[in-house]
Structure formats: structure tokens, C-alpha cells
């Protein structure tokens, strides 16, 4: 037994490091532009979470590419003049021209004015109304009936009601406040117990509902999608997001931070480690960079066996380009500006989206990005590092490739910002560092999303089921609650309250029946 415990202790640090590595990979950390230490603490362009600081001065992939002696050119390699001519022949030129920003006249924000008396539950039900909850009641009872016809009667089962379903969801959501691994801890009498919640429903009744809970009980003959048990709910949720909120012009494509808390991973027992399974799906979002509202969700299953399956495309630009196209399919013709990370940024994708009047600004990595069609001279590092704030730019049509230096090279591809417009990165001690406008815009908008993830990921539902469709469902519910809270904070109802509430605390967790 002691040996098993020792094995768990040895595995826990490895899992912790894996979790931290994933955390850092999802963020533009405080060191993305080569800053480190306390000097970056007050910079509004940087995330200052503890997890971000752990990446130290090597968090940027490109920053690790320290300029060194250039390797000798291979035999037969073209000289600099020939390379310049080849790039010019491909349309890339160092001659820059100004271009106006994409025109955007829409007014972003909530589409419906909620009364000052509206409760947090009213905002949540903009996305999960009673008709959706009633369908869960019907599907759960249908599944329970069919299950018992096949495996034998369950004398302790009684059909669930709408009130019980709301209480059931309330119990699950309560784990986002207590951060307990199991919702059954409410009835345990231990540290996470909650007597006021435990009195609303017995543990036995809760476990019965949990056993039979379904959003879609049975697969139809025409259904082939692997998420058929939750796809109707995701579609309904998307319709709610679309009808309740108009996003700002600037948006971000990324993976939200939905993995387990690294501190919990480092301290969990061997039994808990065995129970944890690697997620079988990838969840991506398109997010409003001025409010944090998640506009669109895209779920990609790892079990896909075709050429578009996640296993076939894992960590490859093809997968991320496919995800980006799916997330932007409802954004055409609106002149949105989309910020992307290195895995999505590519010339082919940006040109394709530009034809749909969707403009982009993305961080580029020679190792992680699809660099097809980009000038090689902009992807290599010079033998002598340029001074901080210097940059090189080449332009092709409306597309600009920027190489900006700040303790290392950082590359950006954009068709949303003029290459001749200048911006600044503000540093507390040394003042302003000049940069192209696209660099300043990228830093500002991505920093907000980093801070959003740092804050709101702490309120994701902690319940970890084994079934993939249930994992997707609870993540979607968490996103719906965070979106409801954003609308709540933007409404008159928030300002008339005598005190402000944290995310989820607007929902009366002392009485799950209020759900």
C-alpha cells in the first residue's frame, strides 16, 4: 500500500507539470514580449497570474530562438539578392502603404434590456430556458424507462420533475463554488458538506437522477454525429448566445482553460489519479475581446477516424485552420477583426477569411504555424540582434508580415491594421517601447482574454463525469453561466443591488430549487 502511495506521489508532480504546461500554452503570458520579473506586474498588456509567471523568460517559442551565428548556406542555396527577387516575384515587398481599418458601425452589447428587478436566474434562462429543461426531464424519464425494461425494474426510481431537474443542476453548479471533486461531498458531513443544500434533496434521489440523466435519450436512425446526446443542447445554447448579445469588432479564437486545477492534481490520491481520464475532445471558442462574452463554441472529438479527426490532425495547423473556419462561419460580411495564436495563424487561412470580410491579426511562429507562402527572409533571425523596438515589415496586398524585436523576435501576420501606423508597449520602469499598431492591438486584446481565463476558469463546474457527452454538457453549462454573469454585470439589475456578487454567486446556491 505504501508503495502505491509512493507511486502516486511520484506521478503527481509530472501531472502538475503537464497541467502547467497546458495552462501556459493556452495563454499569452506576461513574458510574451520578453518582459519578466516585477517590472511587468503593472503592465496592462500582460497577464500576471502565478501560472504565467512560472513560465519565466522562456515562455515565448520565438524568444527561445536566440539569434546566433548564422549557419552556412547549403550548397546551391540562392544568395540574398536572388531570395529577394523570389520574394518580390511572390508579391512580397518592403514598400509599405497605408490602408484604412475595416469599417465597423455595429453597436456591440446585449440585445435585450432586462428590467432592474431581473434576477441572475433570469439571465441564465436567456440561454437555458424552461423548455430546454423540460426536454431534459422528458429525455431522462424516457431513458430510465428503457433502461429498466432492458436491465430490470428499479423500485427506488420515480419520474423526475422540472423542479427536481432544476435542483439537480443547482447541485452540480454548486461544485464551481466549493471546488470539490465530487458533488456527493455535500451530503458527506466533511469539509465540503452543506446542510442547507443537503436538505433540499436526499443523496439517494440525487444519485438516481444522476444515473439516468440524459439530454437526448436515443440515437435517431439519421444521426451519425458522435455528440448526438448533447448536440441539440449546444445548438440551443448557440441560438441563445446569438440572440442575446452582439459582439464588438475585435474577437479572439482560442481554447478556454477547462482543465483540472494543477494544485488539485498535485495533491490528489492514487485512486483519484486512476479515475482521471484524458479528455476525448477539444473545445474551442470565439470570444468577444472587450467583454469576455463567448460568442461561439466548437467541440471536436478525438475519436474521429477520418482525415479530419483530431488524432490525425493533432497539433497540426490543418486541425486549427479547420476549427477557425468552423468558428467563423457565422461571422462573414461583418468586418470583424479576429486575433489568433501561432497554431491558427497562416497566410492561406487569412486570405480565405478576408474574402468573407473577416480580418485577422495573429502571432506567428516558424515552428508552430503554417508558413506556406511567407517570405523566408522574414522567418530567419539576423546574426546581430536588432535593438529593442525595431521592426521589419513586408507587405503583400493587404497582408503585412511584421518582425518586431524585444529581447527576441516576435512575428505577426495581419490584414486588419496598417503597417505604417505606430503604437507603443508601455513598460513601467523603462517607459514606452515603439512597435507597429498591430503589435499593440494584439497585446491589449489577448491580455484581456488571459485575465478572463485566469478569473472565470476558477468557476467552472468541478464535476468530472467519465462520459464525453456529459463532460461537454457541463463545460457548456459553465460557459452559459459565465455569459449570463457578463450580461448581468452590464445590466441595470447589477447596479441596483446593494452589494456586488462574484460569478455564480448571483445564483441562489442555498436553494437549488431556485434554478
Automatic annotation (TrEMBL):
Basic and acidic residues composition-biased segments: 96-106
Domain of life: Eukaryota
Domain PiggyBac transposable element-derived protein: 119-485
Coiled-coil regions listed: none
Disordered: annotated segments: 30-115
Bias type Low complexity, positions: 47-59
Compositionally biased region (Pro residues): 68-77
Protein name: PiggyBac transposable element-derived protein domain-containing protein
Gene that encodes the chain: PGBD5
Amino acid at each position: 500500500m505504501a508503495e502505491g502511495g509512493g507511486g502516486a506521489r511520484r506521478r503527481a508532480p509530472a501531472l502538475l507539470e503537464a497541467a502547467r504546461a497546458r495552462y501556459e500554452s493556452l495563454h499569452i503570458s506576461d513574458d510574451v514580449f520578453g518582459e519578466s520579473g516585477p517590472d511587468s506586474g503593472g503592465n496592462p498588456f500582460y497577464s500576471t497570474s502565478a501560472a504565467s509567471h512560472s513560465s519565466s523568460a522562456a515562455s515565448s517559442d520565438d524568444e527561445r530562438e536566440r539569434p546566433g551565428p548564422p549557419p552556412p548556406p547549403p550548397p546551391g542555396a540562392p544568395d540574398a539578392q536572388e531570395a529577394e527577387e523570389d520574394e518580390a516575384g511572390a508579391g512580397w515587398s518592403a514598400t509599405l502603404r497605408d490602408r484604412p481599418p475595416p469599417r465597423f458601425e455595429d453597436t456591440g452589447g446585449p440585445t435585450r434590456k432586462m428590467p432592474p428587478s431581473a434576477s441572475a436566474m433570469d439571465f441564465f434562462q436567456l440561454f437555458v430556458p424552461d423548455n430546454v429543461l423540460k426536454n431534459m426531464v422528458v429525455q431522462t424519464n424516457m431513458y430510465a424507462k428503457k433502461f429498466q425494461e432492458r436491465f430490470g425494474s428499479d423500485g427506488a426510481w420515480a419520474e423526475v420533475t422540472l423542479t427536481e431537474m432544476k435542483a439537480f443542476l443547482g447541485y452540480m453548479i454548486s461544485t464551481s463554488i466549493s471546488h470539490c471533486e465530487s458533488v456527493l461531498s455535500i451530503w458527506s458531513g466533511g469539509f465540503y458538506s452543506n446542510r442547507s443544500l443537503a436538505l433540499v434533496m436526499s443523496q439517494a434521489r440525487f444519485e438516481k437522477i444522476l444515473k439516468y440523466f440524459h439530454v437526448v435519450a436515443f440515437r435517431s436512425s439519421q444521426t451519425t454525429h458522435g455528440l448526438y446526446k448533447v448536440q441539440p443542447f449546444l445548438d440551443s445554447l448557440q441560438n441563445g448566445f446569438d440572440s442575446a448579445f452582439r459582439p464588438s469588432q475585435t474577437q479572439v479564437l482560442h481554447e478556454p482553460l477547462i482543465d483540472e486545477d494543477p494544485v488539485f492534481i498535485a495533491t490528489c490520491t492514487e485512486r483519484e489519479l486512476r479515475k482521471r481520464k484524458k479528455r476525448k475532445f477539444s473545445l474551442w471558442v470565439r470570444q468577444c475581446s472587450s467583454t469576455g462574452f463567448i460568442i461561439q463554441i466548437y467541440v471536436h472529438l478525438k475519436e474521429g477516424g477520418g482525415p479530419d479527426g483530431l488524432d490525425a490532425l493533432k497539433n497540426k495547423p490543418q486541425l486549427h485552420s479547420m476549427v477557425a473556419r468552423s468558428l467563423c462561419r457565422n461571422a462573414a460580411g461583418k468586418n470583424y477583426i479576429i486575433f489568433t495564436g501561432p497554431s491558427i495563424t497562416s497566410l492561406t487561412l487569412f486570405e480565405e477569411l478576408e474574402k468573407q470580410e473577416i480580418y485577422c491579426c495573429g502571432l506567428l511562429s516558424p515552428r508552430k504555424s503554417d508558413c506556406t507562402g511567407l517570405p523566408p527572409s522574414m522567418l530567419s533571425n539576423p546574426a546581430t540582434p536588432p535593438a529593442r523596438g525595431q521592426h521589419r515589415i513586408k507587405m503583400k496586398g493587404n497582408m503585412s508580415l511584421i518582425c518586431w524585436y524585444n529581447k527576441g523576435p516576435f512575428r505577426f501576420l495581419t490584414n486588419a491594421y496598417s503597417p505604417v501606423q505606430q503604437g507603443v508597449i508601455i513598460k513601467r520602469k523603462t517607459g514606452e517601447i515603439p512597435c507597429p499598431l498591430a503589435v499593440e492591438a494584439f497585446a491589449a486584446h489577448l491580455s484581456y482574454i488571459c485575465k478572463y481565463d485566469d478569473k472565470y476558469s476558477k468557476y467552472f463546474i468541478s464535476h468530472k463525469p467519465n462520459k464525453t457527452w456529459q463532460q461537454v454538457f457541463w463545460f457548456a453549462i459553465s460557459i452559459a453561466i459565465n455569459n449570463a454573469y457578463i450580461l448581468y454585470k452590464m445590466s441595470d439589475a447589477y447596479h441596483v443591488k446593494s452589494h456586488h456578487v462574484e460569478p455564480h454567486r448571483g445564483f441562489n446556491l442555498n436553494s437549488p430549487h431556485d434554478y
